[in-house]
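NAD-dependent epimerase/dehydratase family protein
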Amino acid sequence: MRVLLLGANGFLGRFVADRLLADPAVHLTALGRGDDADVRFDLAGGSPGALTRFLDAVHPGVVVNCAGATRGGARDLTRHNTVAVATVCEALRRSGCGARLVQVGCASEYGPSQPGSSTAEDAVPRPGGPYGVSKLAATELVLGSGLDAVVLRVFSPVGPGTPAGSPLGRLAEAMRRAMQAGDGELKLSGLGVQRDFVDVRDVARAVHAASLSAAQGVVNIGTGRAVRLRDAAAVLARVAGYAGALHELDGPPPRLPIGAPRTSAESVMEHLSATPSPYPDGCGAWQQADVRTARDRLGWRPRINLEESLADIWMEAACRI
């Protein structure tokens, strides 16, 4: 099976590439903006026609899109997360390769959830920030493309290589600095937030399974269990051997209303850009996935527990002490 991977050098893409390369039946080609890509191409700025010609030459059976941006202003997020996917969909429609598309989405597309609830794929998306809006627009483009396509809505990915700007990445860095300075007290904020943390290697397994399946539509990828960031901090402290006290500077930040005007995607993006959210991912105080669809349609279940993921995050942070 010939697979074209977009975004192979990103946090998720690196592990997806490793997983696909471990399958002897897969012949992998990586396309991206970096020098380490097999083929250099800017999805956000390249033309659908140029990508179509490449698809016709390579003739992949599956295209996996892990490319995109998680940070930046609304315009940059739209360009890298929405316009880029429009280019991919248009090129696949024009091409004669007939490839299946596996699009990696995110839980930020759903926005805030009711505490205690599990979010299923039929939930009405109400993204609380420009990142979620840009990813939701990409999902709608994929679902409306008429292609053989599946969108994996990944909840909160963690594990080796976790970005420093993510909640657990920031937590590990704060703990590293405290240990390096010999501080016996670590003061942190926002520890009441609860997220469904799923290991990036399990996400890569899900992408591989989706590539081989006939599943279409949206499929949640998570563990089905929300974990309070305060509890994750306690586990990380145990893994790191940090004996100091953990103090929360404040309680959960207040939840802002998300009654943004819905007359157009542009007006929503402008509103969200101008309205700072107390939750950077726009997901409120709680998110937990309903993962029954992944089990039933992909035959996928998470295997790696949070303590193992945190141990790997700490291993990288400890190397900087």
